[in-house]
Amino acid sequence: SLSAGLDLPGKFLFATLTLMTLVAILVFIEEAVYIYKKIPSSKRSIIIWINAAAPVISTTSCIGMWVPRSTMFTDFTAGIFFAIVIHKFLMMMIKECGGQKMLLRRFENGRFTISTGPCCCCCLCLPRVPITRKTLFWLKLGTFQFAVFRPVLIFLSIVLWTNGNYVLYNLSPKGPALWISCFIGALTLFALWAVGIMFRKVRILLKCKNIIPKFALYQFIVILNHLQTTIINIFATQKIIPCAPPLSSTARGSYIAQQLLIMEMFLITVISRVVYRRKYHDLEPPECAAEEPGDKKQPP
């Protein structure tokens, strides 16, 4: 075990990061109790799922830090959980608009701008799509497919890994790791694209619900959990991160990624508690919003 051979600063670092993980879990539990008591049942489970993303990633990173051989399982667990959270975030935006029927009434003649990131931000020539029940279905399918197929691909990876056919850092075209990673990457882009299209349409309407800070926190988790970890792993594979016996370059890169994630997810957990704990008023029905300007024009 690596922890048995740690010096005093190393033990202090491990203890501090473990304490931060425990505090993040306690903060989330307290927040979940508050949400369960104060939030309507239609939104309760979705908001709890979204708030759980950072503590779960912090917990899996902490377990991977203490038990290095479990890194593959902990990374895959965090990946599966966050795939579900991406779908839940899209559903939360629909719920905050009053549900699907109310959203369709609010944007009866509106259109979705599909030339947005991360897939089509440069394709400004793409047409704007009418907001209908069918287009909403395709957006929900865009995130739902990720929540379904990523666990299946991760399960396949674990099966191949136990058989010795899957090596995480072996990205040769002959190995399955490269193709599975590329397929998961494509599914991730489509899911994030669907969320981006919906957010671009409802961000003004839901500004009173602090949807912009909530979306920013969600984006930070995506970037830190996926992009940051991928960059560090690439640096470790290319030996840019030097080995430090008894740790190889890849093992050291994994430790650096896990320790950074614990600190970052702790901060996001605390900030999420502030953002989601505020009391927000429900949006007025579309008819009331449409009648208000006319009422003001009428003479007393």
From TrEMBL:
The keyword Metal-binding does not apply. Keywords: Membrane, Transmembrane, Transmembrane helix. It is a multi-pass membrane protein. One of its GO terms (cellular component) is membrane. The chain crosses the membrane at residues 12-34, 46-67, 73-94, 137-161, 176-195, 215-236, 256-276. It is found in: Membrane. This is OSTA protein. It comes from Edolisoma coerulescens. The lineage of its organism: Eukaryota, Metazoa, Chordata, Craniata, Vertebrata. The gene is Slc51a_1.
